[in-house]
């Protein structure tokens, strides 16, 4: 073990510790500090001292299997180095002159982190790549003027960077023959200037100078320039020019790289293999064939527990970290190789996991840091780690002054950096987050990913795992955690089990949802590093593809100034929606879909930046080569000049077709996962190209393209409707006049008015082919499915039974109906889904009506499971800041008054139920915490649920089918109700009222002395008693079933159930049954003599 | 079989008008003793107790006690159809699911009957035990109604303090405060205009005006209202309905928020 420690520690520790930049030091300071000749290994020395102490702790077997497989000795003269790179970053430092000849004092150095096929970690320092951008050369600019411009820029940049330790700022100005991507250009190329700079931060400065105007001495005039590709991130620039895409395999050939021995004191990283290489010798393998494989990279999943004070959310400056659970999984292996939990204070052992106990937080934190460094993960995952776990650890270490804690990145002397950042994207909204830089390790916060990709009613880990893994997990409220921690080794073990589960679940979710494959493939397809996918929006992905394609074509992308304000002012007409002919269709309805509508329009009509012909330049191209789109914009036809976007799209869709074909042929489950992720990534990328051109605040908006695309789409939908209706009619010998009943963006629904599904399919296919023939390739109308029967409520709202083969229906398909909306209570969803199922699948309208009536009756009789009535809404800001009184906000305030510890905070989703309140009370005053309502037996306002939640959705679906749908809401079934009596603790008059016994048979008031039945019901005593007893027995059975279920979920059948998960339906049922059982027992007790 | 005939049918209409805003659904208990109702309002802050004694009816028959669940709004809709001078008869079978209201005009020219579908309401019967109250104030019902109405325009809560000299109603609101004191006056000739106070010890309690105003809807039933109060007990607002019975409203006193918290 001693040796292991030494191996990652590396470097010597000589000389007195020098002062390091303080924690708040800017990013650049830190980067600069890591030059090759960096001062003595200060941080290392600190680490050294503390590790000596730790060695004395006896950890038994723990830690033995932490390390990666040993790295083979590398011989650059004999072996090429091949690895899959996962993350790329850069820093500015002194050049390594053995691989990069330069006289600059400081240069940018790219670092590529990755894993070899054998599972060894690699960090490659790539030297020699220089930042640059282009401008268009003035017509009279000659090669001789280059030096003059270069000198001038140098002078100007020097003025701005007086403190910089640099010999030269503008390295060179070179003339090159290129062409712009914007608008159709008849000439193949013209002169551009490539301006090469010393370091990436100078690009923005030089761009500013070029744009605002610069004096060119040799021409003796001042002029401003449009810059090209000046807003490309340096790392992306490097990847594009070296044809490296996110997560692909790269190779350094024999004799082209320099390797450092594993124990070399000059090693700067914790990676097993560290090499230096010039960017020119890098070979990048496209992610195809053999190179589609995935290296066994290591994933660390982490979860922490903190002991909060009563009434407050844990605060890193006050509350200790008490447990940290970690699992290490090698990608592709089914189970984690390391399952570890570190606890503060003793903890009983857990089967299948290492438990390490520490006396102080200091030791705990440092040992965990060692765990990260020793296990050397490539990716760190967890649930909400980005906003809670990781910032908490860092802040806590700062508070405790564990100075050597934040060094678990891969760069030895580089401290973790944390700053507040804001993410803003049209697609994902705006939110604040903590940006943490852990050099060389990708962070993947599963919560962020799931929030992006899935619409759920709750994003607690609990709800998410229930949804995807079909597994409830125990939810220990953070106010109980402190009690467990203060107990004994057994209670802490319980907490540790819980903590460990929270670390295991994210890993299982990642596996289940194929996140690693999907994101890896997305990175490979779009060419951006994996870490961009979560931290950046959509547009960078398309931008990366355009840049790559443009480079291939020798084109340059101009840096278009974003128009301030943007957005609404310059909108364009969107997609068209044909009016829905509302009704319940008992005939099969065929759906004709355009396959990848927008991408295929762009391909068919050659819509692109590079084919757009401004109206003023129409004369430059022969009229037969010009295409005028329905929106009035003109584009050059494909045979004259092919566009970039159509080409990108063709490649994407072609690649998707290949991936799908391979997927069909593949048998290996890993390969299948990769291919499926790939085809999905390709589809999403193809569809986002259109959005990119329409994003007015994006990098390259071009509304001519997007508005032409939608205009074509509209025209095609109309055309399809006309053609289908004209062709399929009695006059042409068909069974009936068909009718287009609805159409939306890329689909048309046709009722051929035939009774048979098979015939409708036949006609559908025929019609699709017929219509497709009238369109330019590759636009294709496809017959996809038949809905039979079909309930069309309004536009974007329908339900139907979906058939893709005439033998059997596939499933029920609904859109815009309350089966999916998440701001509703579960009751609405259940009622709507079940009645649709009865109506559409079983064709049992009477049954559906019966079901709805029974449900309403149950609701009014208070027999409804409370979990079905819970509504959740997100608390997006402090309650005080809301302008209006929303129910969940009022409730949050109320709960904070009761107990601040359990009250919801900003960002939480607040569950509530509507309870009865005084007449005329506002809806927002009637919201109550479901658990509070349950415990105090507060009566649920059933009528409110009926009037405000159920009535609208039910009327919508039943109106087209039955004559008097209102009858559903006010029939005989609504005349049986239960008014529950609140418990004493709920206050009000209940504190004073006494319950008077009434007859259990007929409800008449009992005379004093009688406890069970009135004298008229005495004759039926046996029967009534029997009924009550059966009730008790049923409740007892269901309570024990629920209790056992909860015990199983918490993993022990001997302990009390602590869980108070508000997302778990079992929890509410357990609570309600428990209460009902108590009441039923009380009733039984009234039969004195039985 | 249940049957009850009331010559002053108007009384029943007024009774219903006074409680239908407080309670939506309730069970009426028809026992040999009389026709009664106990129900909490939907926010369970107040409780209504109605009693119409059997001997107050012109004809009353209840073979066995039965409980009739009714939606009070629907019942009120039917009673609206009765004239103020009409004679009202209620009829129900022991195990039936409807109740019949028969309205006869005074001169017997017009007889109408309305049948209301009964509801099956599963709820517990509640009552407030009788106690000796520390203070009992009897005052003109219209005066009480006016005080509640006036104060409600200023504040939400009224503080009622009873001393041997009189009863003081006070409130504070955003715009200011108000105090109304009614002195004991037994000298007035007309007993219905008297304000009398029976006092064992002084009492001072606060109540939500919103509910008192609801209770005051019973004013047409009686000339006088009786307020009975004890420390930390609900106030009883009672209106006598001639010889027929009474309607009592119980309202829990307002307790400071902190105390509520502690008990919860």
Automatic annotation (TrEMBL), chain A:
Coiled coil: none annotated. The keyword Nucleus applies. Pfam families: DNA_pol_B (PF00136), DNA_pol_B_exo1 (PF03104), zf-C4pol (PF14260). Residues 999-1070 form the C4-type zinc-finger of DNA polymerase delta domain. Its EC number is 2.7.7.7. It catalyses: DNA(n) + a 2'-deoxyribonucleoside 5'-triphosphate = DNA(n+1) + diphosphate. GO terms for molecular function: 3'-5'-DNA exonuclease activity; 4 iron, 4 sulfur cluster binding; DNA binding; DNA-directed DNA polymerase activity; nucleotide binding; zinc ion binding. Keywords: 4Fe-4S, DNA replication, DNA-binding, DNA-directed DNA polymerase, Exonuclease, Hydrolase, Iron, Iron-sulfur, Metal-binding, Nuclease, Nucleotidyltransferase, Nucleus, Transferase, Zinc, Zinc-finger. Belongs to the DNA polymerase type-B family. This is DNA polymerase.
UniProtKB/TrEMBL annotation, chain B:
GO terms for cellular component: PCNA complex. GO terms for biological process: leading strand elongation; mismatch repair; regulation of DNA replication; translesion synthesis. Gene3D superfamilies: 3.70.10.10. Keywords: DNA replication, DNA-binding, Nucleus. GO terms for molecular function: DNA binding; DNA polymerase processivity factor activity. This protein is an auxiliary protein of DNA polymerase delta and is involved in the control of eukaryotic DNA replication by increasing the polymerase's processivity during elongation of the leading strand. This is DNA sliding clamp PCNA.
